[in-house]
Design goal:
By secondary structure, this protein is mainly alpha-helical. It has seven helices and no strands. It is rod-shaped. The mean pLDDT is 84.
Length: 243
């Protein structure tokens, strides 16, 4: 093809048909420009296709992560609600008059003293941020993802901080002999554990009260977070549907 055009140019120059040659040259330039534009357009289309594929892969992974997060949060909410119900049952029980310390302790030990540290899966969002691919997401989805990450970080910081305070508060009744009372292990001669009963009850109540109010707030925060995640899932699924 190039040889063909070159022969035409040489023939026109030989025949001294400059005006025709000029028109031909301009036409050839236009053809070259059109070819370049077509190549650029094809290249752009290819790049857009790659970006769409990358975005789609991220969406798929994010949806998997969000489903796991919903399950994680739902299980955590169930755990927290179970704890708060048992503490409220204890509060109702101790309204009974003339209870003996042993009765109070027996009911107090029914409350779950276990606490859990908060953790969330933010791997995909962190990858999006570290690679800069977060820019591939539409602004509304990008903002929702970042808001979710901030909410999870804030929850973890506050929840885990309160958990540390609770565990420290739990040390006092343990030091006074709570473990031996709970497991009914033999109490060594001269021990004052039974004499410490009232203080054990009060300090354990204090620790569990802190845990109770913390878990109520944590439950509310997790319910809001779960709503946020479900809304984010709807946005992503809508985005995939419209592609």
């Amino acid at each position: 093809m190039i040889k063909f055009f070159r022969k035409i140019r040489q023939k026109m120059l030989t025949e001294n048909k400059f005006s025709k040659y000029l028109i031909y040259a301009v036409g050839e330039i236009i053809l070259v420009v059109i070819g370049i534009l077509i190549a650029l357009q094809l290249n752009n289309a290819k790049e857009i296709s790659k970006l769409d594929e990358t975005r789609h892969n991220y969406y798929s992974q994010i949806l998997v992560d969000l489903d796991k997060e919903i399950e994680n949060i739902t299980n955590r909410i169930s755990f927290l609600e179970s704890n708060t119900v048992s503490f409220e049952a204890y509060n109702k029980y101790i309204e009974t008059l003339d209870l003996e310390p042993n009765q109070i302790m027996k009911e107090l030990l029914k409350i779950n003293r276990v606490s859990r540290y908060a953790s969330f899966n933010t791997n995909t969002i962190q990858t999006l941020e570290s690679t800069g691919d977060i820019k591939l997401m539409p602004e509304i989805i990008r903002n929702q993802l970042l808001d979710l990450k901030r909410a999870q970080e804030s929850y973890s910081k506050v929840s885990n901080g309160n958990n540390e305070v609770y565990l420290n508060a739990l040390m006092k009744p343990l030091q006074l002999g709570l473990l031996r009372l709970k497991t009914k292990k033999p109490i060594y001669k001269g021990s004052r554990i039974h004499a410490n009963m009232e203080e054990i009850i009060l300090t354990l109540e204090g620790a569990l009260s802190l845990k109770y109010f913390t878990e109520i707030n944590n439950t509310k925060a997790l319910i809001d977070m779960r709503i946020h995640i479900k809304e984010l899932k709807e946005m992503i699924n809508l985005e995939l549907k419209n592609k």
